[in-house]
Amino acid sequence: MKKLSETTAKIELGVYGKNTYTGDIRADEFLQELRGKKAIQKYREMRDNNAIIGSIMYAVEQTLRDVKIDVVPADNSAEAQKEADFLKSVLDDMDHTLDDHISEALSYLTYGFSWFEIVAKRREGDARSPKKNSKYNDGRIGIKKLAIRAPWTVNRFEVDTDTGEVTGMWQDSAWGKMPVMIPVEKSLYYRTTSLNNDPSGRSVLRNAYVSYTYLNKIQGYEAVAIERELHGVPVGRMPAEYLSSDATTDQANLRSQFERILRDLKNNEQGYALLPSDLYVDADGKPTNQRLMDIELITANGSRSIQIDPVVKRYQHDIARSLMAEFLMLGTNGGSYALSKTKTDLFLRLLNIPLDLIEAAQVIGTGTTRAVHVAQINQHIYLNNASLGLYPLFIQKRERYNQYLGRLPLHAYTSALDVLLRDRKELKLELEIDKQRYPLKTPLIFFGNNQLQLSEMNLHIAKAAAAGKVAGVAVTKSDKLTLFKILWQFIQGKAEQANDIYSFAAEQVVIHSKCPQLTVALDGEIVKMRPPLRISVLKNALNIKVPHAAASV
Known about the structure:
Helix content: 25-40%
Low-confidence stretches: 326-343
Number of helices: 17
CATH architecture of the largest domain: Sandwich
Mean pLDDT: 79
Strand order of the largest sheet: 12-11-22-19-14-15
Protein backbone atom coordinates (compact mmCIF):
# COMPACT_ATOMS: atom_id res chain seq x y z
CA MET A 1 0.00 0.00 0.00
CA LYS A 2 1.31 3.42 -0.98
CA LYS A 3 2.50 5.55 1.91
CA LEU A 4 0.48 8.70 2.61
CA SER A 5 2.60 11.81 2.24
CA GLU A 6 2.41 14.73 4.65
CA THR A 7 1.29 17.05 1.85
CA THR A 8 -1.62 14.80 0.84
CA ALA A 9 -2.62 14.29 4.47
CA LYS A 10 -3.05 18.05 4.92
CA ILE A 11 -5.26 18.47 1.87
CA GLU A 12 -9.05 18.21 2.22
CA LEU A 13 -10.15 16.18 -0.81
CA GLY A 14 -13.88 15.62 -0.26
CA VAL A 15 -16.84 17.82 0.54
CA TYR A 16 -19.34 17.77 3.43
CA GLY A 17 -22.39 17.14 1.29
CA LYS A 18 -23.31 16.86 -2.34
CA ASN A 19 -25.04 20.23 -2.52
CA THR A 20 -24.39 22.02 0.77
CA TYR A 21 -21.61 24.12 -0.78
CA THR A 22 -24.27 25.90 -2.88
CA GLY A 23 -25.68 27.55 0.24
CA ASP A 24 -29.26 26.59 -0.64
CA ILE A 25 -31.63 25.71 2.20
CA ARG A 26 -31.72 21.94 2.86
CA ALA A 27 -30.02 21.30 -0.49
CA ASP A 28 -29.30 17.65 0.35
CA GLU A 29 -32.90 16.88 1.42
CA PHE A 30 -34.33 13.97 -0.60
CA LEU A 31 -37.93 15.25 -0.42
CA GLN A 32 -38.49 17.98 -2.98
CA GLU A 33 -41.15 19.71 -0.88
CA LEU A 34 -38.68 20.12 2.01
CA ARG A 35 -35.97 21.88 0.01
CA GLY A 36 -35.32 25.59 -0.25
CA LYS A 37 -37.99 28.07 0.77
CA LYS A 38 -40.61 25.33 0.46
CA ALA A 39 -39.07 23.76 3.57
CA ILE A 40 -39.33 27.02 5.52
CA GLN A 41 -42.96 27.45 4.46
CA LYS A 42 -43.83 23.87 5.41
CA TYR A 43 -42.17 24.03 8.84
CA ARG A 44 -43.86 27.38 9.49
CA GLU A 45 -47.20 25.80 8.57
CA MET A 46 -46.53 22.87 10.92
CA ARG A 47 -45.51 25.21 13.76
CA ASP A 48 -48.48 27.58 13.40
CA ASN A 49 -51.30 25.27 12.26
CA ASN A 50 -50.88 22.13 14.38
CA ALA A 51 -52.05 22.28 17.99
CA ILE A 52 -49.73 19.51 19.21
CA ILE A 53 -46.59 20.93 17.59
CA GLY A 54 -47.52 24.47 18.64
CA SER A 55 -48.04 23.52 22.28
CA ILE A 56 -44.79 21.53 22.43
CA MET A 57 -42.72 24.31 20.87
CA TYR A 58 -44.38 26.91 23.12
CA ALA A 59 -43.62 24.82 26.21
CA VAL A 60 -39.96 24.47 25.16
CA GLU A 61 -39.61 28.18 24.41
CA GLN A 62 -41.24 29.30 27.67
CA THR A 63 -39.02 26.93 29.65
CA LEU A 64 -35.71 27.88 28.06
CA ARG A 65 -36.29 31.63 27.90
CA ASP A 66 -36.35 31.72 31.73
CA VAL A 67 -32.93 30.08 32.09
CA LYS A 68 -30.65 32.29 34.16
CA ILE A 69 -27.66 33.65 32.22
CA ASP A 70 -24.50 34.56 34.12
CA VAL A 71 -21.56 36.56 32.80
CA VAL A 72 -18.43 35.05 34.38
CA PRO A 73 -15.08 36.92 34.41
CA ALA A 74 -12.20 35.21 32.60
CA ASP A 75 -10.12 35.31 35.79
CA ASN A 76 -10.02 36.96 39.20
CA SER A 77 -8.33 40.14 38.04
CA ALA A 78 -9.97 43.56 38.35
CA GLU A 79 -9.73 44.05 34.58
CA ALA A 80 -11.62 40.81 33.90
CA GLN A 81 -14.34 41.80 36.38
CA LYS A 82 -14.60 45.23 34.72
CA GLU A 83 -15.11 43.65 31.27
CA ALA A 84 -17.68 41.20 32.67
CA ASP A 85 -19.62 44.13 34.13
CA PHE A 86 -19.38 45.90 30.76
CA LEU A 87 -20.81 42.88 28.96
CA LYS A 88 -23.70 42.75 31.45
CA SER A 89 -24.41 46.41 30.74
CA VAL A 90 -24.35 45.73 26.98
CA LEU A 91 -26.98 43.01 27.32
CA ASP A 92 -29.09 45.31 29.50
CA ASP A 93 -28.79 48.29 27.12
CA MET A 94 -30.39 46.88 23.97
CA ASP A 95 -33.66 48.06 22.45
CA HIS A 96 -35.17 44.72 23.46
CA THR A 97 -34.74 42.39 26.42
CA LEU A 98 -32.44 39.38 26.40
CA ASP A 99 -35.49 37.16 27.07
CA ASP A 100 -37.06 38.41 23.84
CA HIS A 101 -33.89 37.55 21.93
CA ILE A 102 -33.79 34.04 23.41
CA SER A 103 -37.43 33.50 22.44
CA GLU A 104 -36.68 34.57 18.86
CA ALA A 105 -33.44 32.56 18.76
CA LEU A 106 -35.35 29.39 19.67
CA SER A 107 -37.06 29.60 16.28
CA TYR A 108 -33.98 27.69 15.07
CA LEU A 109 -35.64 24.57 16.51
CA THR A 110 -38.52 24.98 14.05
CA TYR A 111 -36.52 26.00 10.99
CA GLY A 112 -33.12 24.44 11.70
CA PHE A 113 -31.40 27.82 11.97
CA SER A 114 -31.97 31.41 13.06
CA TRP A 115 -29.99 34.44 11.93
CA PHE A 116 -29.58 37.77 13.68
CA GLU A 117 -27.87 40.93 12.45
CA ILE A 118 -25.85 42.68 15.14
CA VAL A 119 -26.58 46.41 15.05
CA ALA A 120 -24.04 48.39 17.09
CA LYS A 121 -24.19 51.88 18.64
CA ARG A 122 -21.91 54.25 20.47
CA ARG A 123 -23.00 54.71 24.05
CA GLU A 124 -23.38 58.46 24.53
CA GLY A 125 -26.17 58.65 27.09
CA ASP A 126 -29.45 60.38 26.31
CA ALA A 127 -28.43 61.50 22.83
CA ARG A 128 -30.68 62.98 20.17
CA SER A 129 -29.65 60.36 17.65
CA PRO A 130 -31.29 56.96 18.22
CA LYS A 131 -28.05 55.38 16.98
CA LYS A 132 -26.24 56.77 20.05
CA ASN A 133 -28.99 56.75 22.68
CA SER A 134 -27.97 54.65 25.70
CA LYS A 135 -28.35 54.19 29.45
CA TYR A 136 -24.60 54.71 29.68
CA ASN A 137 -22.31 57.57 28.68
CA ASP A 138 -18.88 55.92 28.48
CA GLY A 139 -18.38 56.36 24.72
CA ARG A 140 -17.82 52.65 24.19
CA ILE A 141 -19.38 50.59 21.43
CA GLY A 142 -22.44 48.64 22.57
CA ILE A 143 -25.24 46.69 20.92
CA LYS A 144 -28.35 48.54 19.82
CA LYS A 145 -30.25 45.38 18.90
CA LEU A 146 -29.93 41.80 17.74
CA ALA A 147 -32.30 42.04 14.77
CA ILE A 148 -33.76 38.74 13.64
CA ARG A 149 -33.77 38.02 9.92
CA ALA A 150 -36.88 35.92 9.30
CA PRO A 151 -36.04 32.47 7.87
CA TRP A 152 -38.57 32.92 5.04
CA THR A 153 -36.60 35.98 3.86
CA VAL A 154 -33.34 34.02 3.55
CA ASN A 155 -32.40 33.64 -0.12
CA ARG A 156 -29.32 31.46 0.41
CA PHE A 157 -26.16 31.19 2.49
CA GLU A 158 -22.76 32.33 1.31
CA VAL A 159 -20.43 29.35 1.68
CA ASP A 160 -16.66 29.19 1.16
CA THR A 161 -16.29 26.52 -1.54
CA ASP A 162 -12.82 25.58 -0.28
CA THR A 163 -13.58 25.15 3.43
CA GLY A 164 -17.35 24.75 3.44
CA GLU A 165 -17.66 27.40 6.16
CA VAL A 166 -20.56 29.85 6.19
CA THR A 167 -19.31 33.39 5.48
CA GLY A 168 -22.64 35.18 5.26
CA MET A 169 -26.29 35.14 4.30
CA TRP A 170 -28.18 36.65 1.36
CA GLN A 171 -31.55 38.11 2.38
CA ASP A 172 -34.48 39.12 0.18
CA SER A 173 -34.99 42.65 1.48
CA ALA A 174 -37.89 44.03 -0.57
CA TRP A 175 -39.87 43.36 -3.73
CA GLY A 176 -37.92 44.36 -6.83
CA LYS A 177 -34.62 44.83 -4.97
CA MET A 178 -31.54 42.65 -5.11
CA PRO A 179 -30.79 40.37 -2.12
CA VAL A 180 -28.63 41.92 0.61
CA MET A 181 -25.48 40.17 1.83
CA ILE A 182 -25.08 40.08 5.65
CA PRO A 183 -21.57 38.86 6.58
CA VAL A 184 -21.19 36.36 9.38
CA GLU A 185 -18.88 38.78 11.23
CA LYS A 186 -21.89 41.08 11.68
CA SER A 187 -24.24 38.28 12.64
CA LEU A 188 -25.32 35.92 15.37
CA TYR A 189 -26.05 32.54 13.81
CA TYR A 190 -27.74 29.55 15.45
CA ARG A 191 -28.35 26.11 13.97
CA THR A 192 -29.52 22.80 15.42
CA THR A 193 -26.86 20.51 13.99
CA SER A 194 -23.71 20.61 11.88
CA LEU A 195 -24.55 17.32 10.11
CA ASN A 196 -23.07 17.48 6.58
CA ASN A 197 -22.16 21.03 7.55
CA ASP A 198 -25.55 22.02 6.13
CA PRO A 199 -25.78 25.78 6.77
CA SER A 200 -29.56 25.51 7.30
CA GLY A 201 -29.25 22.88 10.04
CA ARG A 202 -32.10 20.41 10.55
CA SER A 203 -35.56 21.23 11.86
CA VAL A 204 -36.69 19.26 14.91
CA LEU A 205 -40.01 18.91 13.06
CA ARG A 206 -38.44 16.89 10.24
CA ASN A 207 -39.32 13.50 11.75
CA ALA A 208 -42.90 14.66 12.38
CA TYR A 209 -43.47 15.61 8.73
CA VAL A 210 -44.97 12.29 7.54
CA SER A 211 -47.31 11.99 10.55
CA TYR A 212 -48.33 15.64 10.15
CA THR A 213 -49.11 15.13 6.45
CA TYR A 214 -51.27 12.05 7.04
CA LEU A 215 -52.97 13.70 10.02
CA ASN A 216 -53.92 16.71 7.87
CA LYS A 217 -55.37 14.47 5.18
CA ILE A 218 -57.36 12.37 7.66
CA GLN A 219 -58.74 15.45 9.40
CA GLY A 220 -59.76 16.78 5.98
CA TYR A 221 -61.57 13.52 5.23
CA GLU A 222 -63.22 13.74 8.65
CA ALA A 223 -64.45 17.29 7.96
CA VAL A 224 -65.90 16.21 4.61
CA ALA A 225 -67.58 13.20 6.23
CA ILE A 226 -69.12 15.35 8.97
CA GLU A 227 -70.36 17.90 6.44
CA ARG A 228 -71.94 15.16 4.34
CA GLU A 229 -73.43 13.54 7.44
CA LEU A 230 -75.04 16.77 8.65
CA HIS A 231 -75.93 18.35 5.34
CA GLY A 232 -76.24 15.30 3.10
CA VAL A 233 -75.40 14.95 -0.58
CA PRO A 234 -78.16 16.35 -2.83
CA VAL A 235 -79.27 13.87 -5.50
CA GLY A 236 -81.58 14.97 -8.31
CA ARG A 237 -83.80 12.83 -10.52
CA MET A 238 -85.19 13.76 -13.93
CA PRO A 239 -86.32 11.90 -17.07
CA ALA A 240 -83.60 10.03 -18.96
CA GLU A 241 -84.16 11.96 -22.21
CA TYR A 242 -83.01 15.16 -20.45
CA LEU A 243 -79.67 13.48 -19.67
CA SER A 244 -79.04 11.95 -23.09
CA SER A 245 -76.61 13.36 -25.64
CA ASP A 246 -79.41 14.06 -28.14
CA ALA A 247 -81.52 16.11 -25.72
CA THR A 248 -83.24 19.16 -27.20
CA THR A 249 -82.06 22.69 -26.45
CA ASP A 250 -84.89 23.25 -23.99
CA GLN A 251 -84.17 19.96 -22.25
CA ALA A 252 -80.44 20.80 -22.00
CA ASN A 253 -81.27 24.25 -20.56
CA LEU A 254 -83.59 22.70 -17.97
CA ARG A 255 -80.90 20.19 -17.05
CA SER A 256 -78.37 23.03 -16.55
CA GLN A 257 -80.78 24.89 -14.26
CA PHE A 258 -81.42 21.70 -12.30
CA GLU A 259 -77.67 21.10 -11.88
CA ARG A 260 -77.25 24.69 -10.66
CA ILE A 261 -79.97 24.16 -8.04
CA LEU A 262 -78.22 21.02 -6.76
CA ARG A 263 -74.85 22.80 -6.66
CA ASP A 264 -76.24 25.82 -4.80
CA LEU A 265 -77.98 23.59 -2.28
CA LYS A 266 -74.68 21.82 -1.65
CA ASN A 267 -72.82 25.12 -1.20
CA ASN A 268 -75.56 26.53 1.07
CA GLU A 269 -76.19 29.30 -1.48
CA GLN A 270 -79.83 28.34 -1.98
CA GLY A 271 -82.37 27.75 0.76
CA TYR A 272 -85.06 26.04 -1.27
CA ALA A 273 -85.77 24.28 -4.57
CA LEU A 274 -88.90 24.86 -6.68
CA LEU A 275 -89.76 21.82 -8.80
CA PRO A 276 -92.70 20.95 -11.08
CA SER A 277 -95.28 18.65 -9.51
CA ASP A 278 -95.88 16.61 -12.67
CA LEU A 279 -95.97 12.82 -12.23
CA TYR A 280 -94.92 9.99 -14.50
CA VAL A 281 -97.76 8.33 -16.44
CA ASP A 282 -97.99 4.62 -17.05
CA ALA A 283 -98.60 2.80 -20.36
CA ASP A 284 -102.34 3.51 -20.06
CA GLY A 285 -101.72 7.24 -19.61
CA LYS A 286 -102.62 7.20 -15.90
CA PRO A 287 -100.42 9.21 -13.43
CA THR A 288 -98.19 7.25 -11.04
CA ASN A 289 -96.79 8.20 -7.62
CA GLN A 290 -93.33 8.95 -9.05
CA ARG A 291 -92.46 12.57 -9.82
CA LEU A 292 -90.86 13.61 -13.10
CA MET A 293 -88.28 15.68 -11.16
CA ASP A 294 -87.18 15.15 -7.58
CA ILE A 295 -84.43 16.11 -5.10
CA GLU A 296 -83.24 14.02 -2.17
CA LEU A 297 -80.50 14.57 0.44
CA ILE A 298 -78.63 11.30 0.99
CA THR A 299 -76.86 10.72 4.32
CA ALA A 300 -74.92 7.73 5.64
CA ASN A 301 -76.86 5.21 7.67
CA GLY A 302 -75.57 3.06 10.53
CA SER A 303 -72.16 3.09 12.20
CA ARG A 304 -68.86 3.08 10.34
CA SER A 305 -66.36 0.24 10.54
CA ILE A 306 -63.43 2.71 10.63
CA GLN A 307 -63.22 5.08 13.59
CA ILE A 308 -61.40 8.30 12.74
CA ASP A 309 -60.63 9.45 16.29
CA PRO A 310 -58.17 6.64 17.24
CA VAL A 311 -56.28 7.20 13.98
CA VAL A 312 -56.05 10.95 14.63
CA LYS A 313 -54.83 10.34 18.18
CA ARG A 314 -52.23 7.85 16.93
CA TYR A 315 -50.73 10.40 14.54
CA GLN A 316 -50.83 13.05 17.26
CA HIS A 317 -48.87 10.70 19.51
CA ASP A 318 -46.43 10.01 16.66
CA ILE A 319 -45.82 13.76 16.29
CA ALA A 320 -45.28 14.20 20.03
CA ARG A 321 -43.06 11.11 20.13
CA SER A 322 -40.88 12.46 17.31
CA LEU A 323 -40.29 15.57 19.44
CA MET A 324 -39.61 13.44 22.56
CA ALA A 325 -42.61 15.08 24.22
CA GLU A 326 -45.27 12.36 24.32
CA PHE A 327 -45.69 13.01 28.04
CA LEU A 328 -47.66 16.13 27.01
CA MET A 329 -50.33 13.79 25.59
CA LEU A 330 -50.91 12.09 28.94
CA GLY A 331 -54.47 12.46 30.16
CA THR A 332 -55.98 13.11 26.72
CA ASN A 333 -57.98 9.87 26.90
CA GLY A 334 -59.48 10.28 30.37
CA GLY A 335 -56.37 9.65 32.46
CA SER A 336 -55.38 11.51 35.58
CA TYR A 337 -53.09 14.52 35.11
CA ALA A 338 -51.90 14.27 38.71
CA LEU A 339 -51.05 10.60 38.22
CA SER A 340 -49.34 11.20 34.88
CA LYS A 341 -47.26 13.97 36.46
CA THR A 342 -46.23 11.51 39.17
CA LYS A 343 -45.23 9.03 36.46
CA THR A 344 -43.17 11.67 34.66
CA ASP A 345 -41.47 12.62 37.93
CA LEU A 346 -40.74 8.95 38.59
CA PHE A 347 -39.08 8.61 35.18
CA LEU A 348 -36.97 11.70 35.89
CA ARG A 349 -36.00 10.32 39.31
CA LEU A 350 -34.72 7.12 37.69
CA LEU A 351 -32.34 9.19 35.57
CA ASN A 352 -31.43 11.63 38.38
CA ILE A 353 -32.81 14.48 36.26
CA PRO A 354 -33.81 17.51 38.40
CA LEU A 355 -37.55 18.22 38.63
CA ASP A 356 -36.85 21.97 38.69
CA LEU A 357 -37.25 23.38 35.16
CA ILE A 358 -34.21 25.64 35.33
CA GLU A 359 -31.93 22.89 36.65
CA ALA A 360 -33.32 20.47 34.05
CA ALA A 361 -32.58 23.01 31.29
CA GLN A 362 -28.99 23.20 32.51
CA VAL A 363 -28.75 19.41 32.19
CA ILE A 364 -29.78 19.76 28.52
CA GLY A 365 -26.76 21.98 27.92
CA THR A 366 -24.17 20.24 30.09
CA GLY A 367 -25.35 16.66 30.64
CA THR A 368 -24.36 13.34 29.10
CA THR A 369 -26.51 11.44 26.61
CA ARG A 370 -27.85 8.12 27.91
CA ALA A 371 -30.00 5.59 26.04
CA VAL A 372 -33.02 4.15 27.92
CA HIS A 373 -35.51 1.41 27.14
CA VAL A 374 -39.01 2.27 25.91
CA ALA A 375 -41.84 -0.26 26.24
CA GLN A 376 -44.82 -0.40 23.91
CA ILE A 377 -48.26 -2.00 23.63
CA ASN A 378 -49.58 -2.09 20.08
CA GLN A 379 -47.42 0.91 19.13
CA HIS A 380 -48.47 2.91 22.23
CA ILE A 381 -45.35 3.62 24.25
CA TYR A 382 -44.97 3.78 28.03
CA LEU A 383 -41.94 4.70 30.09
CA ASN A 384 -42.97 3.50 33.57
CA ASN A 385 -45.83 1.02 33.61
CA ALA A 386 -48.97 -0.30 31.95
CA SER A 387 -51.82 -2.31 33.43
CA LEU A 388 -55.22 -3.90 32.81
CA GLY A 389 -58.06 -4.60 35.21
CA LEU A 390 -58.32 -2.89 38.59
CA TYR A 391 -55.71 -0.19 38.06
CA PRO A 392 -57.50 1.52 35.13
CA LEU A 393 -60.68 1.37 37.24
CA PHE A 394 -58.81 3.08 40.12
CA ILE A 395 -57.85 5.93 37.77
CA GLN A 396 -61.35 6.36 36.33
CA LYS A 397 -62.95 6.26 39.79
CA ARG A 398 -60.41 8.75 41.14
CA GLU A 399 -61.21 11.17 38.33
CA ARG A 400 -64.92 10.98 39.18
CA TYR A 401 -64.14 11.81 42.81
CA ASN A 402 -61.94 14.72 41.70
CA GLN A 403 -64.62 15.98 39.32
CA TYR A 404 -67.39 16.14 41.92
CA LEU A 405 -65.45 16.75 45.14
CA GLY A 406 -62.31 18.57 44.01
CA ARG A 407 -58.75 17.26 43.82
CA LEU A 408 -57.71 15.82 47.17
CA PRO A 409 -54.89 13.32 47.95
CA LEU A 410 -57.42 11.28 49.96
CA HIS A 411 -59.21 10.32 46.72
CA ALA A 412 -56.33 8.04 45.73
CA TYR A 413 -57.22 5.80 48.68
CA THR A 414 -61.01 6.16 48.70
CA SER A 415 -61.26 5.38 44.97
CA ALA A 416 -59.11 2.26 45.46
CA LEU A 417 -61.30 1.07 48.35
CA ASP A 418 -64.44 1.82 46.31
CA VAL A 419 -63.20 -0.32 43.42
CA LEU A 420 -62.05 -3.18 45.67
CA LEU A 421 -65.40 -3.26 47.45
CA ARG A 422 -67.71 -2.92 44.46
CA ASP A 423 -65.97 -3.25 41.08
CA ARG A 424 -63.84 -6.38 41.30
CA LYS A 425 -64.08 -7.36 37.65
CA GLU A 426 -62.17 -10.42 36.51
CA LEU A 427 -60.55 -10.57 33.07
CA LYS A 428 -60.51 -13.85 31.15
CA LEU A 429 -57.33 -13.76 29.12
CA GLU A 430 -54.82 -15.99 27.43
CA LEU A 431 -51.23 -14.94 28.14
CA GLU A 432 -48.62 -15.75 25.50
CA ILE A 433 -45.13 -15.49 27.02
CA ASP A 434 -42.34 -16.05 24.51
CA LYS A 435 -44.78 -18.06 22.33
CA GLN A 436 -46.00 -20.26 25.23
CA ARG A 437 -49.72 -19.79 25.98
CA TYR A 438 -51.27 -19.81 29.48
CA PRO A 439 -54.97 -19.33 30.34
CA LEU A 440 -55.40 -16.61 32.95
CA LYS A 441 -58.28 -15.26 35.03
CA THR A 442 -57.10 -12.10 36.73
CA PRO A 443 -58.41 -8.88 38.26
CA LEU A 444 -55.09 -7.15 37.59
CA ILE A 445 -52.09 -7.57 35.31
CA PHE A 446 -49.25 -5.07 35.60
CA PHE A 447 -46.21 -4.40 33.37
CA GLY A 448 -43.27 -2.36 34.66
CA ASN A 449 -40.54 -0.69 32.60
CA ASN A 450 -39.02 1.47 35.33
CA GLN A 451 -36.57 -0.55 37.42
CA LEU A 452 -36.60 2.08 40.17
CA GLN A 453 -40.35 1.70 40.64
CA LEU A 454 -40.11 -2.10 40.58
CA SER A 455 -37.21 -2.05 43.05
CA GLU A 456 -39.18 0.15 45.44
CA MET A 457 -41.96 -2.47 45.26
CA ASN A 458 -39.32 -5.15 46.10
CA LEU A 459 -40.03 -7.08 42.91
CA HIS A 460 -37.15 -9.19 41.56
CA ILE A 461 -38.27 -8.53 37.97
CA ALA A 462 -36.66 -5.08 38.31
CA LYS A 463 -33.42 -6.64 37.00
CA ALA A 464 -35.26 -8.00 33.96
CA ALA A 465 -36.71 -4.54 33.23
CA ALA A 466 -33.21 -3.04 33.50
CA ALA A 467 -32.04 -5.62 30.93
CA GLY A 468 -34.74 -4.55 28.48
CA LYS A 469 -37.24 -7.36 28.96
CA VAL A 470 -41.00 -7.21 29.38
CA ALA A 471 -41.51 -7.50 33.16
CA GLY A 472 -44.98 -8.26 34.47
CA VAL A 473 -47.03 -9.25 37.50
CA ALA A 474 -50.46 -10.96 37.44
CA VAL A 475 -52.88 -11.45 40.33
CA THR A 476 -54.58 -14.86 40.10
CA LYS A 477 -57.50 -14.44 42.55
CA SER A 478 -60.22 -11.80 42.66
CA ASP A 479 -62.13 -12.37 45.92
CA LYS A 480 -62.32 -9.40 48.29
CA LEU A 481 -60.23 -10.92 51.10
CA THR A 482 -57.37 -11.95 48.79
CA LEU A 483 -57.23 -8.53 47.15
CA PHE A 484 -57.05 -6.73 50.51
CA LYS A 485 -54.27 -9.10 51.63
CA ILE A 486 -52.31 -8.44 48.44
CA LEU A 487 -52.83 -4.68 48.84
CA TRP A 488 -51.47 -4.85 52.39
CA GLN A 489 -48.45 -6.90 51.22
CA PHE A 490 -47.73 -4.32 48.52
CA ILE A 491 -47.83 -1.56 51.13
CA GLN A 492 -45.39 -3.54 53.31
CA GLY A 493 -43.09 -4.22 50.34
CA LYS A 494 -43.72 -7.97 50.56
CA ALA A 495 -45.50 -8.54 47.24
CA GLU A 496 -43.04 -11.31 46.30
CA GLN A 497 -44.24 -13.34 49.29
CA ALA A 498 -47.89 -13.30 48.21
CA ASN A 499 -49.20 -16.72 47.13
CA ASP A 500 -51.58 -15.34 44.52
CA ILE A 501 -49.13 -13.16 42.58
CA TYR A 502 -47.32 -14.52 39.55
CA SER A 503 -44.37 -12.56 38.11
CA PHE A 504 -42.71 -13.15 34.76
CA ALA A 505 -40.19 -11.67 32.31
CA ALA A 506 -39.91 -12.25 28.57
CA GLU A 507 -38.78 -10.75 25.28
CA GLN A 508 -42.39 -10.44 24.13
CA VAL A 509 -45.80 -10.95 25.73
CA VAL A 510 -49.10 -11.17 23.84
CA ILE A 511 -52.48 -10.88 25.57
CA HIS A 512 -55.38 -12.62 23.82
CA SER A 513 -59.01 -11.98 24.74
CA LYS A 514 -62.48 -12.57 23.34
CA CYS A 515 -63.50 -9.05 24.41
CA PRO A 516 -63.79 -6.60 21.48
CA GLN A 517 -61.63 -4.08 23.35
CA LEU A 518 -59.64 -3.83 26.56
CA THR A 519 -59.06 -0.82 28.83
CA VAL A 520 -55.36 -0.19 29.44
CA ALA A 521 -53.66 2.34 31.73
CA LEU A 522 -50.44 3.68 30.19
CA ASP A 523 -48.46 5.89 32.59
CA GLY A 524 -51.70 7.29 33.99
CA GLU A 525 -53.52 7.59 30.67
CA ILE A 526 -56.57 5.48 29.82
CA VAL A 527 -56.51 3.93 26.33
CA LYS A 528 -58.99 1.56 24.68
CA MET A 529 -57.26 -1.15 22.61
CA ARG A 530 -58.40 -4.05 20.49
CA PRO A 531 -56.80 -7.41 21.33
CA PRO A 532 -54.45 -9.05 20.83
CA LEU A 533 -52.17 -6.74 22.84
CA ARG A 534 -48.51 -7.14 21.89
CA ILE A 535 -46.10 -5.95 24.58
CA SER A 536 -42.40 -5.52 23.80
CA VAL A 537 -39.45 -3.33 24.73
CA LEU A 538 -37.50 -1.11 22.34
CA LYS A 539 -34.04 -1.38 23.83
CA ASN A 540 -32.02 1.83 24.14
CA ALA A 541 -34.54 3.52 21.84
CA LEU A 542 -34.69 6.91 23.59
CA ASN A 543 -31.68 9.17 24.10
CA ILE A 544 -31.98 11.33 27.22
CA LYS A 545 -29.71 14.08 28.53
CA VAL A 546 -28.79 13.19 32.14
CA PRO A 547 -26.37 14.63 34.70
CA HIS A 548 -22.86 13.21 34.39
CA ALA A 549 -23.25 11.29 37.66
CA ALA A 550 -26.33 9.47 36.29
CA ALA A 551 -24.78 8.38 33.01
CA SER A 552 -23.73 5.01 34.41
CA VAL A 553 -26.87 4.27 36.46
